[in-house]
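User: Okay, second chain of the day. Same drill as before: sequence in, structure tokens out.
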Amino acid sequence: MDTFFKPWIGSEYQQKNYKILVIGDSHYCGGCDRCGVYGNCSFEEMEDCSNFTQRIVKSYIDFRKDIIEKQGWMTKTFYRFDKIFYGKENVTMEESLKLWNSISFYNFLQTAYIGKASNVLYSDDDYALSTPLFCNVIKELKPNLLIVWGNRAYYHLPNTNWLRGTNYSGKYLIDNENEIKCIRIYHPSRANVSDWHSILTDFIGMEPNKLL
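Assistant: Same drill. Structure tokens below.
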């Protein structure tokens, strides 16, 4: 796949008749400033960093399995998405594993920022350089539904063959018979669980967990 940060692909994703791809925004690290679309890393460095997204999701799953200790981002972001998806405050370990083994996850920005989300200045160039790589992910994973976390990635999605629905949803028209539905939700760390579960359910036309 021609992208820098490789997406998480759940173990059951390819067997699903209805495929869900969740789009996050960005990674944060304390490493170099040479990664992603700007990179001049060695192959060894690039190979290690390219697994960043996959390692993040694997860490969250290991936390849910009680293999590793909790870190703040796990419950603030990933577990809150589980709550939005299932529409309840207490999601079991089994439900979390079913969700993340069934879906794929990709962070839109192909540059990891140094520092914390609250003190990062984003660039339109960062997003523009990442858009073609996102198109490659879509071609390979062939999702039926995109769930985008937050405004920044959503408003930088490619607009080719895009048909707008509401101010937070639309779809890509692939051909006469195929389309990819897309919805933007608030970033899970700031989203109201009940409200966004209802919006997601209305958009899909059924309880989201019935798609797993």
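The mean pLDDT is 88.

User: Thanks, on to the next one.
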